[in-house]
Amino acid sequence: MLTAVQLLAWGEGFHAECPNHACRRAGLCQASSIEPECAPLWPEALGRRLDDMLVGIALSAFRTEASRAAIHARLVQAFGPDPQAPSGKKRSRSAAGTPG
Fold first, then answer.
1. pLDDT at site 88
2. Residue 95 contacts by C-beta under 8 Å, 6 or more apart in sequence?
3. pLDDT at res. 71
4. CA–CA dist 58, 52 (Å, integer)
5. Considering its fold, how many domains does the chain have in total?
6. Residue span of the structural domain in which 55 resides
């Protein structure tokens, strides 16, 4: 997400006007948070563009996880459970031996 902030800020040339001296010196946005020091320079349309990019990143991550889960489910169905996966809940010996 920070890369998206840096990319947009660099594309707009904010590093030249940024209150952060490191940005001006490096000629590149040094954003270390989603709300960079140059945020007041950002026009509303660019802020919406950043929001759209961040939603796209989140959707991509969710889709990747769903795809991995589906592949895992197919492999387990085809080849059986993962031998490395922890088995069911284990009971302690004291609880197992106590009547009641």
1. 64
2. none
3. 93
4. 10
5. 1
6. 1-79
